[in-house]
Specification:
Elements: H1 2-22, H2 29-53, E1 58-63, E2 69-73, H3 75-101, H4 109-125, H5 129-147, H6 153-184, H7 189-198, H8 203-217, H9 226-232, H10 235-265, H11 267-289, H12 294-309, H13 312-315, H14 321-354, H15 365-368, H16 370-384, H17 390-405, H18 409-433, H19 448-462, H20 468-474
Antiparallel strand pairs: 1-2
Amino acid sequence: MLALLIPGLLFTPLAWAVMSVLVDFRRGYWLCWAGILLQALVSVGLWLTVAREGGQYYALGGWPAPLGIELRVDGMAVTFVLFTALVASAAALHAGVYLDAAKGDPRYFWPLFWFLWAGLNGVWLAGDLFNLYVGLELITLAAVGLVALGGEAGALRAALRYLFAALLGSLGYLLAVALLYGGYGTLSLSGLAALAAEQPPPLLVILLAAAGLAFKTALFPLHFWLPPAHGIAKSPVSALLSALVVKASFYVFARLWWGLGEGAAGWWLAQALGALGAGGVLVGGWLALRQARLKMVVAYSSVAQIGYLFLLFPLSQGGETAELARQGVMLHLLSHALAKAAMFLAAGNLILAVGSPRVDALAGVSRFLPFSLFSFGLAAVSLMGLPPSGGFVAKWLLLQASIRSGQWWWILLLVAGGLLSALYLFRIFRASFLEKGGEDTFYHPPRGLEVIPMVLALMAIGLGFAAEWPLAVLALPFAGEGGS
């Protein structure tokens, strides 16, 4: 069964990318939605198959040792495949209407969108360093093109800054890969993990990989490229970038750390990564509070929320807290993907309505567009970590991991980060409930645009009630060779 599903996840988006270049979206409307439906169904089918069979190991195709170029499936991989399908489908549905309403050019959006989806699935399913690199580069090139969509000078500047940062990150990662291959003679993640258990890699390798992937993930203070790119891109693009793209490099980071880094890096590097994450939470939250444009508030919020992900490293340093930390970070990643996609899409609707990107232009919009504002608010509940959202459960797990490990300083960060989130998000609501003088001149976006962020925001809240399902599948191991 998996031998049929997995190639579909990789080759279907590539085929649709080529077709979308040849066929205009307006003429090939149903062809595009057929591809999205096919990808969503295959993603759900893969997740259900792995969940039902209990995390059996699957390695498909590729080249055998010493290269070990392969695809692999475990609970973590299929969960990210499923959430990618949810967010990408929602962003595509929104973009199909939004780009016309915002006078955007959808012609180049669709091929880049499909290449991005192919790259994301390639990263989630990669079982070796080579496929991870190819997937990351495909994601980067597609994401940079999506940021530049429309060709405005500001978008081109942001896209170039993003490209240069991503290339620097790729250089660090590639140097680490070269050293690993030279030292161990294989690119397979499972093979490297087995060899590293006997002889840990040099610290230089871990530092190079960490620096390169931290650049791509926009970890503070390497985040300078993210706010301009996310803030100026079209709203469906911003949703894809924040919810999925920056998660891909963190996913690779986590895979390498668990397989190679824990034995070689030591306590001090784990704490240093946590400290940089803390810097992102505090600096990103403070800068979000000071922004005058709505999407820049949401973009700097991404810098802050990314910081929480790096608590994985200090809190998972062995002992009983490791599993709590992994569960908390993975659940935060998933809830953030849903909430931030909802928030960017809702922000796009609000900007369309008021005709201005500024926060102070939202005065009176609470009466005119309450549905989109409510979607923004539900997403904010999860980002602030309030019950009963997925964000609350994630931070509760991280709080428990901090207490049980005796690392009380991360408790202070979780509290301070939540308060900062409340300040910059409630600032948006304060502006929207003010009344402006004169006659309202709002534009009402198409109704379909308001439904999509609402569904995503409700899913972010609902994740708090059903957290045990994704967590149970995420824990399914990748061990012991088998087949389908």
